[in-house]
Amino acid sequence: MTAPGRRSSTFSRLLRHGFTDAAAAERLLDSEELSAVRGDPVLLDALGATADPNLALLGLVRLLEAQPDRTARRAVLDTLIAAKPLRDRLLGVLGASAALGDHLARHAQDWQALVTYEPRDLHPGVEEFERGLAEATDPVSLRVAYRRCLLSIAARDVCGTTDVAQTAAELADLATATLRAALAIARAAAPEDAALCRLAVIAMGKCGGHELNYVSDVDVIFVGETADGADEQKAIRAATRLASHMMRVCSETTVEGSIWPVDANLRPEGRNGPLVRTLSSHLAYYQRWAKTWEFQALLKARPVAGDLELGEAYIAALEPLVWKAAERENFVTDVQSMRRRVVENIPPAEVDRQLKLGPGGLRDVEFAVQMLQLVHGRADTSLRSGTTLDALGALAAGGYVGRADAAQLDAAYRFLRSMEHRIQLYRLRRTHLVPEGDDDLRRIGRSLGLRTDPIADLNREWRRHAAVVRRLHEKLFYRPLLDAVAQLAPGETRLSADAARERLVALGYADPASALRHLEALASGVSRKAAIQRTLLPVLLGWFADSADPDAGLLNFRKVSDALGRTPWYLRLLRDEGAAAENLARVLSAGRLAPDLLMRAPEAVSLLGDGDGVAGGAGGLDPRERAHLEQEILAAVGRADGAQQGVTAARGVRRRELFRTAAMDIVGSYGTEASPVTADQGALVDLVGGAVSDLTAATLVGTLRAVVREGWGDTLPTRFAVIGMGRFGGHELGYGSDADVLFVHEPQEGADEQEAARAANAVVSEMRRLLQLPSADPPLLIDADLRPEGKTGPLVRTLNSYEAYYRRWSLVWESQALLRAEPVAGDAELGRRFIDLVDPLRYPADGLGDDAVREIRRIKARMESERLPRGADPTLHTKLGRGGLSDVEWTVQLLQLQHGHRESGLRTTRTREALAAARDAGLVSAEDAATLDEAWVLATRVRNAVMLVRGRAGDTFPSHGRELAAVGRYLGYGPGHVGDMLDDYRRITRRARGVVEELFYGG
């Protein structure tokens, strides 16, 4: 008897053998059923070797309790102690699967299925499983027989007799035998239907690929034909009834549960399509309507049941179409976007526990392998395996994947599939989530041979393998392209030139020969630069392929590399700063403007990193404040030797900051791994408009200082101010916008008025000349056409002259133009007085009279009819078209002229700010304001996109296919969705025009 307060020696032994609940185990060992063997060390050692000793012991006691008599119990125990193979198999299953323990408790004699241990039992196939299911004549008996067969598969699995790939193949073979048995049951129930038709069952997915899980939907497609000249419609209806019955036999819940769901949703048209089609109907669908993912799914297609001759005919008919799928436009992008959508649809709470669908999961390996198969399987039939690991091995053998990468992926895939098997085996439930409970994790870890610290070791190994998959799954597609142009180690197989070209074309490269030359130039040699670029290029190629112009991205990267490749900070930036390389790839492949700005001074690439910048200017992509820009430009002008040199320095800062803003815009619109797509597109538009406007103002400040200093020292004979107008005054400049301005001066006290006027005009002329001089930096065009009397009036007026003109001659359109007036450079006090002068004009105390409103409407209508370029589509012109910028801005400005004196919120030069104020004042409904705002933001983004893509300003969508696709990519439309982009633009602007008709034209 054990002394009070002390544990028994048995309790301690149980703990040492891995029992987590030693007290419960003691009670079970003391039960009558185990009385004959409770002291046998063989039993305790065998239980301790299982995944969950407590679960195994409980399952054994329940099995013994279920035996009909003492003799039967004794037979179980005698065999268990005497026969090690049975002991390992039976206890191994009981310790890993509560569900199979339940089955053995209900069917007490099925343990004998684990007794035989002959060579033919080690690797059974479809025939052996068919014999095991032969006596099943109804759904219930089929489930019992299925579980009996499953017992033997699980036993071989947990004992290590078969590896994970063999286990998956056996599960697929058992599924094949089960489908055949279920179809036989359906035929026996409806012999008249069976006589009318031929029905083939095509396995898809993991069953078709010979790599099934313990519990998984079994994906199928049905093909039907007539038998013996029967009517086709009747035959297809009969085949549909047989197929439906067969699915119910497997899927429906009975007293013995269900087997697994049979899922036919991979068929043409999915759930909306007929369950059974003829072969010709299948062929017609795939030839005309099928999407890329449907051909990808057909990689796994395999006839498994029913009329196998018809099934083989189905495979033969569709196989040529499968291997042409990689020739489809946007093939790689379609596959990758499908993968992204799968990840995006995972509930956030499950992402980190998803073995199958999450980042670094099984699906990453499968998608990567399938994509490579579709690209290269056209020419190499050795790659046409439906089994992931076999296909991966063939890809490595053929040089399509690096051997080391393939070996790491193979090991990771096997580990993740083993985890998945163990998770599902426990309850025989379909799940791909790693459990969170310690007991579950301990059982899984022990079942995989991790015995020292099962939970910690399991988590570590899982994360390690997932990280390998994340790192390799996309690089798998790109790295061999470098090997194709590089020197390889002995024994390595390179991608052939033809295979490399195939892969580049699949990625969207229009000129694969040039792309290969660029890769060779970038990756060849033994320099540090070449080594770093060899590491980066597989990832960069993927980012380039995600753009509308991969060729340009790769060419631009080579240009930057040639310019900066020997610069230590550049190599360090790409190697060490995670965001820099992806930001660079996005910028280089998004269009012409940003790369052109960068090529003129490649050191600006330092802005793409996370740090403080290396080659001048602050690092990072956030726009700099205007005060900081003015400070830098004025300092550069102060150091310069003469006005031209000073303005050149100012233009250099402008070019660098334009690049920063464009890069920020591109990264915010495309999104990167570190920085998702900016959700508030209106905020991004405001940020770009504000940044370009501030930069233009700072450039004018510096130019004015340089011109004045050279011509007059520090004492210009007149006070001088620059007033921003139009989009400049509204903080809404685009990349290609001119700077609309007015120039105002006021002679210094005691100065000669004529001399002051000559000085002011000289300043303006010199500023305009210097800002437009040909150079590596983009010109800044100054447009003063909004001045009194337009192009025929003087460029510069005194404040008194402006006052006299506006008092006597001002027209309503000039009051409207002055709504955007804001001082941007020069004498701040003079600028303020100019604003005081024009405020009564733009915010009249009595609002606008009817004549003035009619005049504004007349001018707008005339502008619509006369200024729209000939041949332009009015539904797609962003400035003058229906619901475009002009429509929205004139509507807002009319409200400002009418109500600005009374509503202080309307006294702003910014369109969106004024529109929001009109809404808040009740002048516009919230719905109408949102409609106008959406159209204005979209039209502005299109104009910005056109400039980024083409490198020159434009008010309409590009006509060239690649440029149009690049605009779509900037706006968030994936490949192949240009039509959706244009439809959305027309829809949004059409709604805006409806609001304009009501608010501006009075209904």
Output the keywords:
1003 residues; disordered N terminus; five-stranded mixed beta sheet; 10 strands; mainly alpha
Tell me what you see in this structure:
There is one protein chain. This protein is mainly α. Helix content is 61%, strand content 5%. It contains 45 helices and ten strands. The strands form two sheets. Strands 1, 2, 3, 4 and 5 form a five-stranded mixed sheet that branches. Strands 6, 7, 8, 9 and 10 form a five-stranded mixed sheet that branches. Strand 7, helix 36 (753-772) and strand 8 form a beta-alpha-beta unit. The protein starts with 8 loop residues before the first helix and ends with a helix.
Topology (SSEs and partners):
Elements: H1 9-16, H2 22-29, H3 41-48, H4 53-66, H5 70-82, H6 84-96, H7 98-106, H8 119-122, H9 126-133, H10 139-158, H11 164-189, H12 191-196, E1 197-203, H13 205-208, E2 218-226, H14 232-251, E3 262-263, E4 276-277, H15 279-288, H16 292-298, E5 302-306, H17 308-322, H18 331-344, H19 362-376, H20 388-397, H21 403-427, H22 438-447, H23 454-472, H24 475-483, H25 497-506, H26 512-523, H27 528-545, H28 550-564, H29 568-576, H30 578-589, H31 593-600, H32 626-639, H33 643-670, H34 681-712, E6 718-724, H35 726-729, E7 739-747, H36 753-772, E8 782-783, E9 796-798, H37 799-808, H38 812-818, E10 822-826, H39 828-842, H40 850-866, H41 885-899, H42 911-920, H43 926-950, H44 961-970, H45 978-999
Parallel strand pairs: 2-3, 2-4, 7-8, 7-9
Antiparallel strand pairs: 1-2, 1-5, 6-7, 6-10
